Structures are given as C-alpha cells and as structure tokens.
What we know:
Elements: E1 2-8, H1 11-14, H2 21-36, E2 40-45, E3 53-58, E4 61-66, E5 76-83, H3 87-95, E6 107-111, H4 124-137, E7 144-148, E8 151-160, H5 168-175, E9 185-195, E10 203-211, E11 222-226, E12 229-236, H6 243-254, E13 267-271, E14 284-289
Antiparallel strand pairs: 1-5, 1-6, 2-5, 3-4, 7-12, 8-10, 8-11, 9-10, 9-13, 12-14, 13-14
Amino acid sequence: xxxxxxxxxxxxxxxxxxxxxxxxxxxxxxxxxxxxxxxxxxxxxxxxxxxxxxxxxxxxxxxxxxxxxxxxxxxxxxxxxxxxxxxxxxxxxxxxxxxxxxxxxxxxxxxxxxxxxxxxxxxxxxxxxxxxxxxxxxxxxxxxxxxxxxxxxxxxxxxxxxxxxxxxxxxxxxxxxxxxxxxxxxxxxxxxxxxxxxxxxxxxxxxxxxxxxxxxxxxxxxxxxxxxxxxxxxxxxxxxxxxxxxxxxxxxxxxxxxxxxxxxxxxxxxxxxxxxxxxxxxxxxxxxxxx
Length: 291
C-alpha cells in the first residue's frame, strides 16, 4: 500500500526557522534507511504558509487568498510518500523518524487511494485515461490501447537474466539477416518477445517476425503464439540503445501504480517499417498485456 506521511507545521516552521545541521543530518540518515528498505517514493519540505496561497471554490467562483494562515496545527511543513506492506509497517517507520522540529511535532499517516477503491464508478475507460496521464507524468509517451490480434512470432530464442540482458542486441545482430527471408513471413515488422518469465527474474527473449500458422521454420528457429488480448502500447521515440531504460520505467514505475491489471502473458517490442536500423531510430513500440 502507498501512504502519505504528513509533517504538521510548528510555530518555528511557520516563522521560517530553518532546521539545524544536526537535524538535517539525522533526517538525511533516516531517509537513507527508507531508501535502502525500498520504502520512500518521494519526500519534500515545504516553505511556510506565508509564501503560499489558497484557492477557494464556490460554484464557478475562484477566490485566491495569500498566506500566512492562522491555524498552525492544521498546516503542513513537509511530507513523504511511502510504499509499505501495511499501516503497521508505516507506523513502525514513523516511530523511528527523528523529530522533524525542535519542538513538539506530529506526523499524520494517510493511506493513498488506489484504483480499486473507487469501485464501479471508476470505469475501464477512466482507468485507461488515468494510466495514460500517469505514463506522461513519468516522461513516457502517450499510451494507446489496442486489441491485439492473434500472432505467431518465429525467430531466434535465447534465455537471459537481468545481468545478461545486455546481450540482446547481439541476438538481433544474428537474426537481422533473416528478416524478410523467413518462410511464411507476414508483413515487414519484427518483434522482440519477452516470454517464459521465471520467479528468479530470468526470461526468454525471441527476436522474430510474424509468420503464418502452417509455416515451416528453419532449423534452430522457435515459435511463440500470442493469443488475442488488449494491450497498452507505448512508443519509444529515442535511440534503440535507450529502449531498456524506457522498458524499466514502464515496469518499475508505471505498471505498479497504473491502476490497470497487467496480464501474466508475454510482452513484446514491435519494430515497424518506420524503424531505421542504420540510425537506430523510429518505429519502436512496447506492448504491455492487460487482463
């Protein structure tokens, strides 16, 4: 679960008193512990309310009021976003936190809504819209959602781990001379299919092309069947050498928080006829399977 940990303001923080070197050191050490434990997602201190404003909504009217604001105990001096297993774990970490102020202080821990909390009102269309906004906030491309058709992909297959996946370009170098010459090839696109992912993080990767179901494969080639399903499709606009960074952002930052159900099925890269192998740019897509 994701929680926001709110640091309540104090008289000193509202007066603009900066923390001491000792407190900054202690808080830095605490943040390092959070980072090593994989807990912290974000965290910032806030300027006093004298530097802020409030925007009041009343029907179609918008009223802006400059700070400072009087109710110090209700104001926020900073926050963290934490990823924890439970509220009990969040409380345990909060107990270990240095006092954020030199005076009495209070932390407030609030669970963050996830997509399932909104029930049926959060329709599949709204979920996909929110997932698209989240992708763009991470610097990814605008997503399109597409119903993928039945695909038969054939080519050269190899097994990798997170440490050896840097060898995938060499696999493509070996397969490239076969593109356009594979018996029964359909279309001009080529595909990199990540499949048979195992608990230890290892996986199979097939560099191939689409073929007809009855095509006879050359010796050493393998086939992967991709049944029809819905996909989230990302466009990679950079050089092909930076594709792994885009894929990592999708899987480590977008997928866990996107509000969509990711299928336990092969994902794949698609290199369209717009891909230029000489420049390593254009026509690259990442297809993420959805339930």
